[in-house]
Amino acid sequence: MKPCRVEVYTDGSADDKGRGGWAALLKYGAHTKLISGSEKPTTNNRMELTAAVMALRALNRPCEVHLYTDSEYLRKAFTEGWLERWQQNGWRTSARTPVKNRDLWEALLAEVRRHRVHWHWLKGHAGHPENELVDREANRRRRALEDD
Q1: Is the pLDDT of residue 12 over 90?
Q2: How many separate domains does the chain show?
Q3: Which domain CATH number covers 27?
Q4: First-to-last CA distance in the chain?
């Protein structure tokens, strides 16, 4: 079986009324797939995490994943050891407060264990085509909730 190497671009969006959207673009060779959703009430960070969880869940077998995000919160949790420290501290921050979005962090950890994930940060709104695409889609999904 051909090794699976996927590029994933994620983004999340939420407004001050708690309406949010998320999107992920998965690229495997010449194939691309855009997935997205919305939720309320929510926060921007929850939508950023949801996009990553849903993208990794969409992969039907273990893959080497290069995940690109404009969320430092998401990337640094993995690359700077935040998640390990939170778990060692009983899901508490260095200030001894409960870690926000624990449910999504735990879901993301479960998905990350299935794959080999490389975390990459992209500057948001800087003209990167894939990042701009997921940003537009996340915002489109968020705005669709305004009619509810």
Answers
A1: yes
A2: 1
A3: 3.30.420.10
A4: 46
